[in-house]
Amino acid sequence: MPLVNRKREKAKPRKSFQFWRAEEWIRNWTTGQFELWNKFWAEMLGTLVLVTVGNASIAQNQAQYHTAAFLDINLAYGLACAAGIYVAARTSGGHINPAVTISQLLLGRMNIVQAIVYISAQILGGFLSGPIVYLVYLDAINWLDPDQLENRRPTAGIFATYPTDLYKSTLPVLFFDQCFATIMLVVAINAVLDKRNSVPPMPAVPLLIGLFVVMIGLSFGVNAGYAINPARDFGPRLFSAIIYGIDVFRVGNYYWWIPIVAPTCGAIIGGYTYLLFVGTYLDDLEEPEENKPKQ
């Protein structure tokens, strides 16, 4: 029998072997099932960036000068805040601060479940910053505090805020300090986020918020280091208790609760202050032309 002529089929291109398609695997694992899961990780990572960079700047300054250079730390915290917001903004809104989250909750902009998820993520991010900074600057910490007997001051201040040693501070003054500083911060944040206002381009907003943090640090930082963020203080303070002992909660006449409660009160007051004195007035104004949708 004659051989049957068959058309040769074109060889299909061979797919290159990929041992681990990481991006696809991670995307399938983290998306589509539980939206709050994505927001949790975004808030955790954004807060981790904020607190790690900020506290590392304190450690670096102490290692170099045996005292913290205030301007350097303010700039580092401002840039770290901007970076943290950029990380989380698209996914979760970039709160990276439990006080801001509680303020949004009480203004009716999120529900209680979302708030719990956000705050848990933020505290976790702050806590995880502790071992990172500690390991990076372990040699410097041991050099600065070789005896390790008394709560390792000043290096305990790398991780959490404490009342100044320059003069005697009272708890009511320290509470008002943290509360009012957070009011100023939240009013400014609301001003640049309110679309009815003459808001800047959204990509510039995190940088502006970072500058607001620098502003607060330059004017409200000397009394106790301007925590203005419970996750920035309580998270790494929990880690520092593992290293330095329970005294981190006793120093300053049990000051530790003020960086939690005072910024939270300040954020709530700040949110309603902006709404009362500016936001309700903007309701009666025509929306700026640049903010109107194009036809």
Characterize the main sheet: none
Q: Please give the CATH architecture.
A: Up-down Bundle
Return residue spans where pLDDT drops below 50 for at least 5 consecutive residues.
1-6
Please report the total strand number as a whole number: 0
Strand content: under 5%
Q: What level of helicity do the residues show?
A: 55-70%
Distance between the termini: 74 Å
The computed structural class is mainly alpha
Name of the CATH first level: Mainly Alpha
How many helices? The count is 11
Number of domains: 1
Average residue pLDDT = 85
- Compressed to H and E, one letter per element, the order equals HHHHHHHHHHH
The CATH topology turns out to be Glycerol uptake facilitator protein
CATH homologous superfamily caption? Glycerol uptake facilitator protein
Q: Can you walk me through this structure?
A:
The protein has 295 residues and is an all-alpha fold. It has one domain (34-284): Glycerol uptake facilitator protein, CATH 1.20.1080.10. The chain is built from eleven helices and no strands. The protein starts with 21 loop residues before the first helix and ends in a 13-residue tail after the last helix. Residues 1-6 have low confidence and may be disordered.
Concise account of the structure shown:
The chain has 295 residues and is mostly helical. 63% of the residues lie in helices and 0% in strands. The protein has helices at 22-30, 35-65, 70-92, 98-106, 112-136, 138-144, 171-193, 205-220, 230-244, 251-254, 258-282.
Brief descriptors of the model:
295 residues; mainly alpha; Glycerol uptake facilitator protein; 11 helices; 63% helix; globular; disordered N terminus
